[in-house]
Amino acid sequence: MAAANEPERKERPADLPLADPLGPILEAIRSSQGLPPAEAAARIRAVLPPAVAEVAESNQRLRDLILQREALAVTAISMLRAAAEALRDPGRTAPERAEEAARLRQVADDLARSLEPGEEPGEGDPRPIAPRGTRSRVLVVDDDADVREALELTLDPDYEVVTAVDGRAAIDAARSGKPDLVLMDLFMPRMDGLQALEQLRRDPVTADIPVIFVSARGDDAVKAKTLDLGAADFLQKPFSERELRARLERTLRLSRAQNSLRELAQTDPLTGLANLRAFRARLEEEAKRARRYRTPLTCVMADMDHLKAVNDGLGHAAGDRAIAAVAAGIRAELRETDFGARYGGDEFVVLLPHTAADEGRFFAERACARLRATVLEVGGRRIPLGASFGVASLPGDSSAPAEAVVRAADAALYRAKRAGRGCVAVATLDEADGGAPATS
Questions:
Q1: What 3-state class would DSSP assign to 340?
Q2: Angle between helices 23-31 and 37-88 (to 10 degrees)
Q3: Residue 12 half-sphere exposure, CB side, CA atoms within 13 Å?
Q4: Apex 215 CA angle, 209 and 220, nearest 5
């Protein structure tokens, strides 16, 4: 469901064809014929970043939609089988039958919505696709109410504008609202723009949001410092509306291209989860944050059970579908602040910030139960899904390296495998090299 402040979608006429993302590149090539080589190359380079960004974004949306629909179909099939068994059970009471019917209707509604163009997925979908507005969201930060109002009036027709009164409020707004760009004054009370920028860059949630500074008091040294700290641009007051819009659009185009390329480099194409490179970077960030705020960080390792039998009996294509379905089941249990990745092969890893070992065990048990209840249909064959889980936690006061919690979770995972598969084992850091964790 779209948020209350989400701009209304603009409907595309039924007879209007979808734009070809490679169209601008082809047009640039055609229009460059007969021009000097240097000018032709410059024209083509100018259209490459937005075209690449659009292609990458379209591919990611398609992958998300395929995974979402397949996971919904898997859930629907499992629930239909459960309903068939329930109808044959004479011991079921009328309220139990009514509850089963309501659950089936909800899954049917979710599945129907996923098949309709332009509809948002239901609340229970394994991987909700974030609603996309027709306008970029710009966070305007200035302690002067008149300046905020003037910028909002200037940008509002073409951008979704949110405002903040100082650097501290800007950090909160950026974390919660995830703007596409921040337009920020340099000198403000409580927290100035430079301090706010440093904090935004330290937080993985806001680290990649481009920031353009706006100030009337900016000599070359100040401008250089803002760029050194990671600002995208510096806009000197007074400026024209045309210059403001040109700077914003240029920054947004570059940001979209960079984000799309970064996402391609950090995403596992089969499952849609993060890849190992992205996980290692996130692990260090989360471990530093856990130590700074003295909060626990839990790692959960998961390994699919009996994948070799699927590959041997039905082929690797069926094995890939099973891996993707397991990933969807794990993803369905993730909170917004959690981070899931494909560790390699049929292994997955999850980071749970601000989460102790007991809570991590509950997460793993829920994911384990969800997978046990899921059956994948491939070529008329039913493939039961399942995985074993290992859990370990890094206490907030621990001085152990970040990798220690991964090694401990991995050790717990293999003990879960030896305990019979399809279960959860928990280890402490000092048990990583051969202790006896609890198994459930």
A1: strand
A2: 160
A3: 9
A4: 95
Query: Mean pLDDT across the stretch 28-35?
Result: 71
Closest to 338 measured CA to CA, from 326, 349, 325: 349
Predicted confidence at residue 219, as pLDDT, reads 76
Amino acid at 416: A
Average pLDDT, the chain: 79
pTM: 0.55
Distance, in Å, from the CA atom of 341 to the CA atom of 339, rounded to the nearest integer, reads 7
Half-sphere exposure of 237 (CA within 13 A, CB side): 12
Going from the C-alpha of 218 to that of each of 165, 181, 236, 239, 440, the distances in angstroms are: 20, 20, 7, 13, 61
Q: Which residues pair with 297 in a beta bridge?
A: 353, 394
Bridge-partner residues for 236, per DSSP? 215
The Cα–Cα gap between 410 and 404 comes to: 10
Distant-in-sequence, close-in-space partners of 175: CB < 8 Å, separation ≥ 6: 203, 205, 206
Counting runs of H as helices and runs of E as strands, what totals does the chain give? 13, 13
Q: Which two tokens stand for residue 112?
A: 């129907």
Nearest to 50 by CA among 265, 262, 252: 252
Taking 70 as the threshold, does the pLDDT of residue 106 lie above it? no
Which phi and psi (to 5°) does residue 259 adopt? -65, -40
